[in-house]
């Protein structure tokens, strides 16, 4: 009886060992190339504020913007989730950044070619401050913001629309960059 138990145990171990091995080198390669894609897809699906990348041209000048796109989800946005008179990363998660390979004019002021994080200071009334900061690769957005790295600050007048945008968007369209979220429309003139 003892010999039979040992034989069954040995058979079970061998079956388990060989059953877990890849069938051929081809299936092994397929697994290794599919794994990163699956990991990336899982990472994207897990983000509550997915990363958006927009590229386009304004007045013949190339612009790229990358941002985390949060949703309203029934929350009060302005003055609550995004407080007034406090620097906001203009998106979610990492700092929003803009990449411009040539000099541009923002609200009549020159901004040299480069990469910049994009921040805003929302206000309950009047114009909002839009900030271009040289420290563009900030992992935690406004928590790492340092005013001494500001390259350009401009004032922009928001408008409030009747339709609400569930997800934050930053579009490259006339007159330059247009930020929309909830009922906000913030057009930033770029030439």
From TrEMBL:
Keywords: Signal. PROSITE patterns: PROKAR_LIPOPROTEIN. Pfam families: DUF2911. Residues 23-51 are annotated as: Disordered. Residues 24-39 have a biased composition (Low complexity). Residues 1-22 form the signal peptide. InterPro entries: DUF2911 (IPR021314). This is DUF2911 domain-containing protein. It comes from Algoriphagus lacus.
